[in-house]
Amino acid sequence: MHPGKEGVLGQLFGPVMTTDAMAAVTSDRSWLKAMLEFEAALAEVEAGAGLVPSTVVGPIGQCCLDYDDFDILALGRAGRMSANPAVALVAELRRRLPAEAARWVHFGATSQDVVDTAMMLVLRSALDLVLADLSRAAAAAADLAARYRCTPMVARTLLRHALPTTFGRKAAGWLVPLLEAASALQRIRHDRLAVQLGGPSGTLPGLGPGGPRLGDQLASRLGLVAPVIPWHTDRTRVVEAGAALVVAAGTAGKIALDVALLMQDEVSEAAEPAQPGRGGSSSMPHKRNPAMSAGAGAAWRMAQGLYAVLLAAMAQEHERAAGAWQAEAETLSELCRAAGGAVSVTADILAGLEVDEERMAVNLQLARPALGSSEGGTGNAEQFVDRALAFYRGGNWGVGGHD
Fold it and tell me: How many alpha carbons fall within 13 Å on the CB side of residue 116?
């Protein structure tokens, strides 16, 4: 989202696919703030180790706090010269600082250290939002499972009528994968977001024998994990984060698709929460389209392609890559927006889902002649609902227990 003479990017179609909160934490301004946070923290830990004068910490820190004063578009355009904006950012910092402080800013680090660490900080904020929405979605799905535990309906396999189930069992089938997606993201959030400090070739030659310990201190200062060694061309953690995000988006996409199918006129067993203007048609005012489900489905489809970029960037040359890590930053931001959008709107759908038990009963009765004998009723549907709810209330899935 770069303001300039050409206009503003991402503000016409972008809001359809994500939330305002997610757009904010993955914005260029948030990236810049995270990059400057790295530079300020680096100066602090280096001063503590006696590698830079303590007198430069204040000026560098203050300069890094003034992130609103930086021209993001100018930094991005200058970044074309080095294939990333960190070089231009460091040059701008040095221009703004007194000579004594300017010579010590970014000491011993390389541009990828700045971008990778900023990526982890941005990702942390984004994951917190997705986890909160997954928790909302799970709470709503659990409520639906408990409320409609014994409500019979016809199951559908290969888009055709199958044996009876309960709507509670369908909701339980939404609940468990939501919890598992949350568990995977929680692991990434707590165990895999690591600082990056390796210097030009991953050996920190300018920081002396205390370089590795300095990296540990920087991680502690920023609230990130301290990696065993710098990970410039080991992109496992980036791909893992992308995979967990795309699974969350896919889980949301599946639920949204189910709701859209349940809203079909010939089914009409459930509907998205009604709101004036929602689901309207530009040519058929009488229609109530599954607009929320369509938005979640679109975001899920975007997420798939974005993850493919991260996966393709995983194989990188030697100690620093030419073109692979440079493709990750904007891609991961867009993936966070897509996954966050899909999960958030799905949580809203589930929280206000309108369920028509009478229509479920009618459809089940209409389906019975084709189903033949179904003496088993809804089978073990209620038991599976109970198991799903116990799993949810146990809190072992990573986000915490619920009453």
Answer: 29
Helix (H, G, I), strand (E, B) or coil at 314: coil
Give 123 or 6, the one with higher predicted confidence: 123
Q: How confident is the model at residue 2 (pLDDT cuts 50, 70, 90)?
A: very low
Q: Per CATH, is 14-26+110-394 categorized as 3.40.718.10?
A: no
In 352-380, alpha helices (H):
357-371
For residues 101 and 94, give the distance between their C-alpha atoms in angstroms, rounded to a whole number.
8
The answer to whether 240 and 194 are in contact (CB under 8 A) is: no
Distance of alpha carbon 77 from the chain centroid = 27
Q: Which own/partner pairs from 275-284 qualify as long-range (CB within 8 Å, at least 24 positions apart)?
A: none
pTM tops 0.90:
yes
Helix (H) or strand (E) holding 312: helix 291-312
Terminal-residue alpha carbon distance, the chain = 41
Question: 8, exposed or middle or buried, with CB in 10 Å at 0-12, 13-18, 19+?
Answer: exposed
Contacts of 209 (CB under 8 A, 6+ apart): none
| Residue 85 token pair | 């904006």
Q: Beta strand 270-271 with 354-355: parallel, antiparallel or unpaired?
A: antiparallel
At 107, which amino acid appears?
F
SS3 of 376, please?
coil
Give the residue extent of every domain in the chain: 14-26+110-394
Catalytic residues: 281, 320
Burial of residue 260 (CB within 10 Å: 0-12, 13-18, 19+) is buried
Tokens of 385: 């609902």
Show the tokens assigned to 44: 């602090």
3-state secondary structure of 164: strand
> Three-class SS of residue 375?
coil
CA distance 309 to 111: 21
Find the mean pLDDT for residues 189-213.
96
